[in-house]
Amino acid sequence: MMVTMMLVSWSPFIHNNQIWLYFQKQPFLVVFQKTTEKSCYFRLFTYLCTRLANNSYMDRKIHAIITGDIVRSESIGLDKRDDLIKTLRCAHEDLQRHSSMKMEIYRGDSFQIIVDNPVKSLRIASMIRAYLIGNAPEDEKNGWDARISIGIGAIDYKGESIVVSDGEAFRLSGRGLDSIEKGRLTVATCWDEVNEEVDASIGFVDNLITSLSRNQAKLLYLAVAEELPQVEIAGRTGKSQQNISKTLNAAKEPLLSRYLNRYESLITKHCEQ
After folding, report:
1. pLDDT digits (tens, 9 = 90+) for 233-255
2. Cα angle value 29/35/39 (rounded, 5°)
3. DSSP result, the chain
C-alpha cells in the first residue's frame, strides 16, 4: 500500500521502456530501465526514497544561477588571496538581504551561487562586482573585479554540493560565462522575450560597473545594495550630502537603479506566468 501511494502521488508512466514521473506537472525521467514489473516498482520506490531523503529531487521553481570568476586572478599576490576570498564571502552574506543564497568557491578564483529569488539576480550580481571593486586594496594595481554570468531557469537536480547540481539555470549560466569574451556581465533566461530585451541593454550595466572607481563603487553599494538614502550614506561615511550626490550621479546610480527596477519587474512578470 505504501508503494502504491508513493507511485500515485508521483504519477509514473512507461515510455520507450523507461520510467517517467510527473512531479509538479513536469515530466521527470527516472534514470534506470524497466525490467520486470515487480523489480521495476521496487527500484522506483527505493530511488524516490533516496532522493527525498537527500533533498535532491526535482525542483521546478525558477532560480537564478550566478557563475563567476575573478578578473586577472593570476596577478593577485598570494598574500592577498585570503582577503579576496573573505571579501567575496562578505558580499555574499550581506546580499542575503535580497534573497537567500548558497555559494561555493572553487580553486580560489571561481564561484557559483544559487539565488532563490531570480528577480534580484542582477542587483546581486552587479553589487558583488561593486563590492569587490570598492574593497580592493589601494596597492592592488589592477584592482578586483569579476566576470559574471546569470542563468535563470529551472533546477532539475539539487545535490548537497552546487557542483553536482544540474538544470536549465546551470546550463544557461555556464554557457554564458564560456562565451562572455571581452565583457564582464551577461544574462540568459528561459524566456525569449526577456532575452531579447536584456541582450540589447545589459552592456550598459556591464560598462557602468567596470568603469567605477573604488570610492564610487563603495557609495554605489550603499545606495543600491543597502538601499540607503543619501542623508544616511553621508552620515555613515562622514561626507557631505552634496558630495554623496555628486559621486552617485557620476557613477550613474539613478540610471542603474531605474534599469534594475525594470529588470526586476520583467522577471517578476514572467515568473508569475
Report:
1. 999 999 999 999 999 999 999 99
2. 95
3. -HHHHHHHHH-EEEETTEEEEEETTEEEEEEEE--SHHHHHHHHHHHHHHHHHTT-S-EEEEEEEEEEEETTGGGS-HHHHHHHHHHHHHHHHHGGGTS-EEEEEETTTEEEEEES-GGGHHHHHHHHHHHHHHTS-TT-TT---EEEEEEEEEESB--SSGGG-BSHHHHHHHHHHHT-TT-SEEEEES-HHHHHHHHTTHHHHHHHHHT--HHHHHHHIIIIIS---HHHHHHHHT--HHHHHHHHHHTTHHHHHHHHHHHHHHHHHHHH-
